[in-house]
Amino acid sequence: MIFKLGHSINQQVSVPDNKGAELFIKREDEIHPFVSGNKYRKLKYNLLEAKKKGFKTLLTFGGAFSNHIAAVASAGNLLGFKTIGVIRGNELEDKISDNETLSFAKQNGMQFKFVSRADYRDKTSKAFLAKLKEEFNDFYLIPEGGTNILAIKGCEEILTEADNVFDYICCAVGTGGTISGLINCSKPSQQVLGFPALKGDFLRQDISKFVAKTNWDLITDYHFGGYAKINEELVTFINQFKKTNAIPLDPVYTGKMMFGVFDLINKDYFKKDSKILAIHTGGLQGIKGMNSVLKNKNLSIIE
Ligand SMILES: *Cc1c(COP(=O)(O)O)cnc(C)c1O
């Protein structure tokens, strides 16, 4: 493909109680050290489109710990695009060096435009986009979180023929792009379960816009209070999971999803003798930033 990629294999995970369920995790986090997991899948066809149309600059949006910002900065650097990140929160402007994600993006050549939370909320308006055009001239726009039709096309490549044996496909949900791709390439015999990493009822509608099938559901009990909110129980789970399986999980998405999958196995949610595939969508770059926050609060960190 467009740059050198690693392999995404299915790895078996030991489940605590013997409930008959078999659980595997698809290591999409191993695709690339910096453009990892679903962010690579979502960028692939967008980057090809930007190249084909002759764009020299990519512009996108994100928060201070955004996996998407890190992925766009790195991919842009590898492929020779200039990158611009419109970042939520103008208080971050003189704190770049304290923030792992923004420092990484900067090292990869990303130029930032910090905006207030109010302006950030308005980022898809015509007026705001017109201002960006004036400031930065011509750019290929990638939406926040990277979700658009081309992103979903990329996520339709996550499952392979060999994955047809699974009864359930589980993944973390942010904007819903990744699960939409998974639903589109799932088999009718499979159930696709999304674990939203944030509160909100809009996701079901957002996903419905991109999919025609109905073999999916959202499990909304594992957001831990909202986006990037975590607690001691989640940190303990992530650390235990790594000890047992030698697989790191991130605190914002995959940790919450896997916590939910384990809890549902314990509660006999899945049909007897189910084969479950959980997607490791990556996001490991976010651990350092989260640990800085935990350390400041004197809480235990992700090992
Ligand atoms: C961005 C991200 C998600 C959410 O993907 P969506 O397509 O926005 O639903 C899930 N997991 C990880 C690790 C991510 O970085």
Automatic annotation (TrEMBL):
| Cofactor(s) required for function per UniProt | pyridoxal 5'-phosphate
Question: What does the sequence similarity comment in the record state about its family?
Answer: Belongs to the ACC deaminase/D-cysteine desulfhydrase family.
**What is this protein identified as?**
Pyridoxal-phosphate dependent enzyme
Recorded hits in InterPro entries, A to Z, give: ACCD_DCysDesulf, TrpB-like_PALP, TrpB-like_PALP_sf
Any keyword Transmembrane helix?
no
Record's keyword terms, sorted: Pyridoxal phosphate
Q: List each copy of the Tryptophan synthase beta chain-like PALP domain by range.
A: 18-282
Any Pfam family hit? PALP
